[in-house]
């Protein structure tokens, strides 16, 4: 059965966009400018929140849904994993774009092979490979199983890459200043940061829902075509 | 002859079945030798071409060698992994494997074992070639280097065999296998290159130890995970 849905009228998406706009008005106009980094620090409200959501929400959701799919064989779980991967790719891309912009101003380099940067880059590669794999398998059940296997194996890989690069760096220190030890933020910044996190989390949920709806419609359409030629 | 193909009274155990699968793959490879020779020549060509991609007056050959060795090794390994399940596609030979009264894990372990022999064979020729072409003063360290090579080969084969089984059933197998595998080879290349660089530079073995521990942990985690995941890559 295909129900009519109108993704454009999803109120959650509008609320999320408005919340992010509001957070940015607060971040730019009503949050103090960081003493050492100046205005560049404002990137944190996009960068760090997106990174957190990409790694700890999207990627974990992908791995957990993949594992549960192989166990329960419920197509809904496969669709959630697919949606989490695609929305997670958007957030990871945001991290990889805003990171160098911030890094160039503060560290003096667009890129360093720091453990976090490298792990994030390979997380991006893994999600791209995951989506390419999905696109390359025709049969739906097989596509779900293959992508679930990749989603599960990617979970232990990211810590391995992080650990290897960490070891690589501690044995071979580079002359570039990596990260200043986290300065304790004034409370206005903390409030902006938490608000920004909530706004981006809302956006993640809205996009995930929209993407999940597309996946459901696509599968329903495929079922329909199969049943009626 | 008849005796040789007589059905055994009971199905073989997992390890015995794995050995049978591995022997089958190795027999095919031994009788054709095309894939192995191609991968070997590819590895040797890679080693020589890399030498000219650097300014040899600015970078010492000994500093270059470990990186070259392990990057070439992963690419040559991919050639072997590609045909691991590719060879089962013709006449749906894989149905014979699936219909055999053996555990699915045994198919994976057997395929992985055959691939391990394949990539080890490549390493046995490539490592001396690198030592020769890059003028490495290698003596006692060769035993330790062989240990690193073994650990790296196990990790590469564990992940690569699984992805080979998946990639052959997709629309772009040749492209997808490297796309899936290479991110997983990053910790292997890093650990193998860093530990062998220390050995080749004559540093104390203790400096290579943290990297060897990463390789060991990688092997344990991914051999286990891939063995458990493999049955899900087969059609039911």
Describe the structure.
The complex is a heterodimer of chains A (229) and B (236). Chain A has one domain (8-30, 39-173, 188-228). Mean pLDDT of chain A is 86; it is low at 172-181. In chain A, helix 1 packs antiparallel against helix 6, helix 2 packs antiparallel against helix 3 (75-106) and helix 2 (44-72) runs parallel beside helix 6 (187-228). Chain A is mostly helical and 229 residues long. Chain A contains six helices and no strands. Chain A starts with 10 loop residues before the first helix and ends with a helix. In chain B, 45% of the residues are buried. Chain B has helices at 14-32, 34-52, 61-86, 94-99, 104-133, 141-167, 173-200, 209-229. Chain B has one domain (14-233). By secondary structure, chain B is mainly alpha-helical. Chain B is 75% helix and 0% strand. Chain B has eight helices and no strands. The A-B interface holds A 70, 122, 125-126, 128-129, 132-133, 136-138, 142, 145-146, 148-150, 152-153, 156-157, 160-161, 163-165, 167-168, 171 and B 159, 162, 166, 169-172, 176, 179-180, 182-184, 186-187, 190-191, 194, 207, 210-211, 214, 217-218, 221-222, 225-226, 229, 232-233, 235.
């Amino acid at each position: 059965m295909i129900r009519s849905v109108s993704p454009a009228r999803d109120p959650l998406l509008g609320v999320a966009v408005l919340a992010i706009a509001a957070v940015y008005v607060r971040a730019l106009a009503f949050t103090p400018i960081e003493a050492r980094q100046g205005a560049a620090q404002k990137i944190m409200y996009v960068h760090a929140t997106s990174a957190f959501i990409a790694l700890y929400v999207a990627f974990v959701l992908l791995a957990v849904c993949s594992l549960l799919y192989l166990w329960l064989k419920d197509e809904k779980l496969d669709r959630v994993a697919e949606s989490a991967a695609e929305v997670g790719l958007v957030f990871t891309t945001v991290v990889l774009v805003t990171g160098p912009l911030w890094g160039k101003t503060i560290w003096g380099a667009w890129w360093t092979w720091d453990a976090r940067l490298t792990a994030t880059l390979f997380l991006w590669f893994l999600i791209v490979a995951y989506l390419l794999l999905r696109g390359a398998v025709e049969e739906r059940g097989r596509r779900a199983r293959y992508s679930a296997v990749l989603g599960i194996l990617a979970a232990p890989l990211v810590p391995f890459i992080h650990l290897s690069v960490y070891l690589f760096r501690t044995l071979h220190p580079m002359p570039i200043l990596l990260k200043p030890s986290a300065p304790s933020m004034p409370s206005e910044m903390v409030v902006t940061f938490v608000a920004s996190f909530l706004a981006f989390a809302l956006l993640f949920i809205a996009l995930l829902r929209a993407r999940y709806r597309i996946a459901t419609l696509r599968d329903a359409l495929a079922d329909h075509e199969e049943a009626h030629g | 002859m008849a005796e040789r193909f007589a059905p055994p009274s009971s199905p073989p155990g997992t390890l015995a079945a794995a050995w049978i699968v591995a022997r089958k793959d190795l027999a095919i490879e031994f009788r054709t030798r095309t894939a192995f020779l191609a991968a070997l020549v590819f590895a040797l060509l890679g080693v020589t071409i890399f030498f000219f991609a650097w300014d040899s007056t600015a970078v010492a050959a000994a500093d270059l060698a470990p990186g070259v060795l392990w990057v070439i090794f992963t690419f040559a390994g991919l050639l072997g992994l590609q045909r691991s399940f590719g060879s089962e596609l013709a006449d749906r030979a894989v149905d014979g494997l699936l219909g055999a009264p053996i555990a699915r894990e045994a198919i994976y372990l057997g395929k992985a074992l055959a691939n391990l022999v394949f990539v080890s064979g490549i390493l046995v020729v490539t490592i001396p070639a690198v030592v020769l072409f890059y003028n490495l003063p290698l003596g006692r360290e060769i035993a330790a280097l062989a240990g690193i090579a073994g650990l790296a080969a196990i990790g590469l084969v564990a992940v690569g065999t699984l992805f080979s089984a998946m990639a052959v059933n997709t629309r772009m197998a040749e492209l997808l296998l490297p796309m899936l595998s290479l991110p997983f080879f990053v910790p292997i290349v890093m650990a193998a290159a860093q530990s062998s660089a220390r050995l080749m530079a004559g540093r104390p073995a203790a400096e290579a130890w943290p990297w060897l521990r990463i390789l060991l942990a990688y092997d344990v985690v991914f051999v286990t995970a891939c063995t458990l995941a493999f049955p899900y890559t087969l059609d039911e």
